[in-house]
Amino acid sequence: QVQLVESGGGLVQPGGSLRLSCAPSQKNFNIYHMGWYRQAPGQERELVAGISGGSRTNYADAVKGRFTISRDNASNTVYLQMNSLKPEDTAAYYCNSNPVRLGWGKGTLVTVSS
């Protein structure tokens, strides 16, 4: 069964940047519509950014202008560039198809704190 593997999280100060990556555990597994999701403690998981196979993108209002989703179709990798990070961006970040059709990976934890 294909798994999605997220990486790139960490501890960063407010105003800092991180770049998250998501790749399938099996090569040549391509998903047309992908998304990055996040779940903060005590809150529901939410979609923060989506991208189509043609690289059309959409963003949650909370991250517009700060986050950029992109993809490398050759490696089936999806990225999330996060700039101007805020404490409220602290969450576990996950990738999945958009809408969600796959099992969830382990996610990668992003902590924004001084």
- Structural category is mainly beta
Low-confidence regions: none
The value of Rg in angstroms is 13 Å
Number of strands: 10
Name the shape in a single word: globular
Oligomer: single chain
Largest sheet: 6 strands, mixed
- State the helicity in percent bands: under 10%
Which percent band covers the strand fraction? Answer: over 45%
Q: Overall mean pLDDT score?
A: 93
Distance between the termini: 40 Å
Number of helices: 0
Task: Output the strand order for the largest sheet.
Answer: 2-10-9-4-5-6
Helix and strand element order: EEEEEEEEEE
Description:
It is a single chain. This protein is an all-beta fold. It is about 0% helix and about 45% strand. It contains no helices and 10 strands. The strands form 2 sheets. Strands 2-10-9-4-5-6 form a 6-stranded mixed sheet, with no helix packed on it. It has a 4-stranded antiparallel sheet with strand order 1-3-8-7, with no helix packed on it. β4 and β5 form a beta hairpin. The chain is globular. The N and C termini lie far apart (about 40 Å).
Task: Describe the structure concisely for a colleague.
This protein has strands at 4-7, 10-12, 18-24, 34-39, 46-51, 57-59, 67-72, 77-82, 91-97, 108-112. The chain is mainly beta and 114 residues long. The model has no long low-confidence stretch (mean pLDDT 93).
